[in-house]
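The protein record passed on below.

***
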Amino acid sequence: MNDIMNKNPKPISSYFGENLFDAEKMMRVLPQHAYERLKNVIEHGGQLDLETANIVALAMKDWALGKGCTHYTHWFQPMTGFTAEKHDSFIAHGNNGKVVESFSGRQLTQGEPDASSFPSGGIRATFEARGYTIWDPTSPAFVLEYPQGNTLCIPSIFVSYTGETLDKKAPLLRSIQALNKAALGILKFFNNSATRVFATLGVEQEYFLIDRSYYLKRPDLFQTGRTLFGNAPAKHQQLEDQYFGNIPERAFAFMTEIEQEAYKHGIPLKTRHNEVAPNQFEAAPVFEDVNIAVDHNQILMDMMDRVARRHGLTVLFHEKPFAHINGSGKHCNWSLATDKGENLLDPGKTPQSNLQFLIFLVSTIKAVHDHSRVLRAAVASCANDFRLGANEAPPAIISVFVGGLLTKVLEDLAGRRITPDTDEAWISVGIDKIPQIPKDNTDRNRTSPFAFTGNKFEFRAVGASATPSTAVTVLNTAVADALTEARENIGRLLAKGKDFNTAAVTVLRRMINDSKKVLFEGDNYSKGWEREAAQRGLPNVETTPEALDALFDKDALQLFTKHAVHTEREIHAQYHIEMENYIKQVDIEARITRDMALTMILPAGVKYMNNLTSCADGLRQSLGGKHRTVKSILALLGNVAALVDELRKELRGLEVLLTTARSKKDLRARALAFVDAKTQCENVRKVVDSLEEIVPDEHWPVPKYRDILLTL
């Protein structure tokens, strides 16, 4: 905290990554041969031999002890979407019976947390519940600092006793591997010297900050992350004066501490600003390797939660914590890079590099077209259902925006005829006349769920509370599939004697024509787009249970198994886990809706009715029963009584729907029944919000939106 309060804080570069056991530190503390072996595993894969693992473990332990660590943990990301850790101390019995600090290569590379209570979708039976964590050396170990002591965190995957994945990281790593293989296959056509291709990711994290005292007074907020009742204040975001406005000092203090903690962990936060809604903010880092970027986002969310408490605040990551104002997303800026530093989605300066760029661009478009339903499933959640389709988020219809210039380029490619057997084929398509495409040539269509923004795609449908891993795993795999198909088709034409330019253009033309219906440049919020999308055959899947059906599509199963990202059993498990999670989330919200309405809202309404009755009786005695003031009070009493009766009616309806939903044996049928219960909760909300408008503040049992959102 001292550096935060200091008017002359240290330069970021002086402490960036100090809590990270990164390549620079390893190169400094490891013997040359051990460092080279580890580096080879990180860059090219394979198993680390036990001798090297022991050397690395010893160096890592000594570094961690020097940072004040007493324990280590295999830090992993189970199917809950959160992170998990079991801490073990470094102590062991020495030869003389005394306790010493010890850490071996086996302890570094593999742990056994059991963790049998994590969701597994049926993969783990109780009698074989053992699970294993396995070190991921491609993501650096780091130290988490707590006031009471520090812990060495070792990024790991989590697998079952039978070797099947039980986490979010292992499928991501598999998708990276599939993408690398497919992309290198394309680059060979261009004699590109790259030996590795990887996705890069920059995650724009939106969030709300509220005073913790208000948070603790709202059972809905601290149990679900969102308000189940509440009216927007008269002034909220409609004047658009919050966006990029002055950051409140309290929020600024929080941001400053978060940034300092993030920099120490090597998280390259770049921007901070006010978002559109009151008390809504955003933090965004510089692009990183996708695996590290996902880990960093998970670390950052945990940091933000802990640091907020120190400032008497609560950070809300829920996609829609407040009705009637903007929700929060996690915009995933995704691109492709080589180990030579080349961005494969950068158009370049020459026709030849433009052709390489176009293959990767069009392959990404085709990936989204062919697997839009699976991408929709990847961003599906109970929370995100509230956000998708609202006016601050893209709709549930997955489409691609590339901007006016690239649209013309693609239309030109798709529409021209070529003469395959002549040299003019390349020229006749106009490839050599494609202008240099500047990086930020596109208007950033904020309504598009998947927009090209100069040298990257921005996947905007991902929810703020979600791990980016799920969506990026699907995207990586889908693009790998499209690139593989492109390489195979080009290869077939080359085998028939076509020159490369003709073959590549021919394949590009087919891909564009096959995928063009997913391209849309207009307003994704408009009703007209919904109608047009339906005519194009693009799915508009509005609820999570329906979206998750895509996981059982034949194409989806083939996609994941073909590229060895998921087994069919793992996909079924994922479906089961996500459906169960949806059901549990809705059930929790329905229970809290009922409990708050019965024990807080109804008593407030009845108390106000009693006050109005006493007031009317007193006025009747002093003014007479026919006086207009008495009539006004009685009319108000009638309004409150009607709303109280309506609330009881809607609560009875909710009970019926919950009983029906819970009785369903089939998982999908139960989830769809909970969709109805979720809708009924909104009906209860409408009545409660109407009561809030007329019940005096002194009787209202929870802080209102104006208290929560306008007092930071």
Observations:
- The mean pLDDT is 89.
- DSSP finds 24 helices and 17 strands in the chain.
- The longest helix spans residues 568-623.
- The domain at 582-709 is CATH 1.20.120.1560 (Four Helix Bundle (Hemerythrin (Met), subunit A)).
